[in-house]
Design goal:
alpha+beta, Rossmann fold, Hnrnp arginine n-methyltransferase1, 2 domains, 7-stranded antiparallel β-sheet, 8 helices, elongated, Methyltransferase domain-containing protein, methyltransferase, transferase, SAM-dependent_MTases_sf
Length: about 300
């Protein structure tokens, strides 16, 4: 019988179709960002581990300078693809492709850099956080410190109230949407500036539970009927130049169950809570947007009731 984690993994991030990984190879922003970060952090002669290797391209970037790269992939179809592709590329022999579970695998010796790109916008679906935190614990138990460098090093996540057009040739359908960040989204009206709701730093212990509430200053009149989620991945930090090498995920736009009419100058209270690696509906179920004065009135009423029963 499958364990709860094994059952969940069938739906969340473990069996992404091969053609999806082919599309990732054609994502120029992703490819150039990771290549630059790996070139910056992998020193000549380094030992590198990639967890969730997919087609093997990130391991191949590392092999340009690394002495040895272990590329771990769970999906047997992708293992075969990675081996086939690496055999056609210079330095591909430096990469050992291993069919294995990223939650369990450890390299035969200490490594200098760990690459793990199990990243979905808002850190949903894929198990990036859980895989890295599990790896840290098992690595320290086997090898002791220090921990290797991680690519990516950190994530910054923000949320933004939108008025989103959900009319498709006259058909109203509030759906989940992914948006290309480099394009102008004509169907999206930004009603307030984005606000950072979480920062994950893999050099520290990362809690997969994410909860946030904040207040937005509304800039334009409209109807807040969706929240846009923005995820900026800090792939590497260049300390010498005080810069970062970044990769911005596609935006994720989620419809609100209860839209809110707003005017310029209003204050909008937004709250959300979910677990990294969880499903999109698990986040949607917690999303709330209300006028701040309504929330404050509810808080005052709750305080009054508590005082009565104290």
């Amino acid at each position: 019988m499958l364990t709860e984690r094994e059952l969940e993994s069938c739906y969340l991030g473990q069996f992404i179709p091969v053609h999806y990984h082919h599309n990732m190879l054609m994502d120029n922003r992703r490819m150039s960002g990771f290549k630059a970060a790996i070139t910056h952090l992998v020193a000549p002669g380094a030992k590198v581990l990639e967890l969730g290797g997919g087609t093997g391209v990130l391991s191949w970037f590392a092999a340009a300078q690394a002495e040895k790269v272990w590329c771990v992939e769970y999906n047997p179809d992708l293992v075969a693809e990675a081996k086939r592709f690496l055999a056609q590329n210079v330095n591909g022999e430096r990469v050992e492709v291993i069919q294995g579970d990223a939650f369990e695998y450890l390299p035969p010796e200490p490594v200098d850099v760990v690459i793990c790109e199990m990243i979905h916008v808002a850190m949903l679906r894929e198990k990036q956080v859980q895989v890295i935190e599990s790896f840290k614990q098992r690595y320290l138990e086997k090898f002791g410190g220090p921990l290797p460098l991680f690519i990516p090093e950190a994530m910054i996540m923000a949320v933004q109230p939108l008025q989103q057009d959900y009319c498709f040739e006259g058909y109203n359908a509030p759906i989940v949407q992914f948006q290309e960040p480099t394009f102008i989204q004509t169907g999206s009206v930004e009603l307030a500036q984005p606000s950072v709701y979480s920062m994950l730093d893999f050099t520290q212990a990362v809690n997969p539970q994410i909860a946030w509430e904040g207040v937005f200053a509304i800039e334009h009149a409209g109807t807040v009927n969706a929240l846009r989620f923005v995820t900026k991945n800090i792939l590497a930090v260049n300390m010498q130049q005080s810069t970062t090498i970044d990769w911005l995920n596609h935006y994720l736009v989620l419809p609100l169950a209860e839209p809110v009419s707003v005017q310029a100058g209003d204050q909008l209270h937004v709250s959300l809570a979910y677990k990294a690696g969880g499903s999109i509906p698990s986040l949607q179920a917690t999303m709330r947007a209300q006028h701040l004065h309504v929330v404050e009135a509810e808080w005052a009423l709750q305080s009054k009731h508590l005082a009565v029963y104290a």
